[in-house]
Amino acid sequence: MAKFHLEYHKVDAISWLRAAVLGANDGIVSIACLLLGVAAANAAQENLLLTGVAGLVAGAMSMATGEYVSVHSQADSESAALKQEREELAADPAGEHRELMGIYMRRGLDQHTASKVAEQLMAHDALDAHARDELGISEAMAAKPLQAAVVSAFSFASGAALPLGVAALAPAHTLVAWICASSLLFLGVLGGWAAKSGGANVFKGACRVTFWSSLAMAVTAGAGAIFGAVA
């Protein structure tokens, strides 16, 4: 018997990668913008750091809560769909066989081959076959709420700690320049790494996240300067 040929693809890591990149990127951008906005309003460095720490904790908890609720909703939808599919398989296995056969025929198999494939897959694990090929639910892509929440919180805090650390160490008179330059560097590296991990173009990934993040920082710093002058 021929040995199975196994391959690893970048998409296998898409669930945790999305949460990790989103969290770290949001952490860097959020805290960098927050620090720049407060610094532009002429706040003392001590107040700046206190604001940054509060933003780090609040942002990490917000990311974890939002990700958990969002992914749990997806998991609930998947569970409901699987329950319905299980009931349909018990009530009308012949109809479900025809439905699966039709899916394979639309993918290019002739009727006889599609029928045999559907028959064998349903004999092996009918619910798994329908979940994967009819509903698009697979083990690799299944929603994992707790994992997504933990990854998001940790990655946000890790990303947020970078500009916060720069703000703590940089000289007060060049604080804004240091936060801007270092945060854009961090974001460029993160964008490039995320693109490489996903098999995409590294340069485009780095440029995309750097451009939009620099725009967000500029807008926040401008708002801080305006309201700081008014105050």
In brief, what are we looking at here?
This protein has 231 residues and is mainly α. Helix content is 81%, strand content 0%. The longest helix has 47 residues, at 45-91.
In whole angstroms, how far apart are the ends? 79 Å
Largest sheet report? none
Specify the helix fraction band.
over 70%
Number of strands: 0
Provide the β-strand percentage band. under 5%
Broad structural category:
mainly alpha
| Rg result | 25 Å
**Global morphology:** elongated
**Number of H/I helices:** 7
Mean pLDDT: 83
Helices and strands, in N-to-C order?
HHHHHHH
> Which stretches are low in confidence, meaning pLDDT under 50 for 5 or more residues running?
none
Which key features would you list for this structure?
single chain, 231 residues, mainly alpha, 81% helix, 0% strand
Care to describe what's here?
The chain has seven helices and no strands. The model has no long low-confidence stretch (mean pLDDT 83). It has helices spanning 14-40, 45-91, 93-106, 111-133, 145-169, 175-197, 202-230. It is elongated, with a radius of gyration of 25 Å. The N and C termini lie far apart (79 Å). Helix content is 81%, strand content 0%. α2 crosses α3 (93-106). It has 231 residues and is mostly helical.
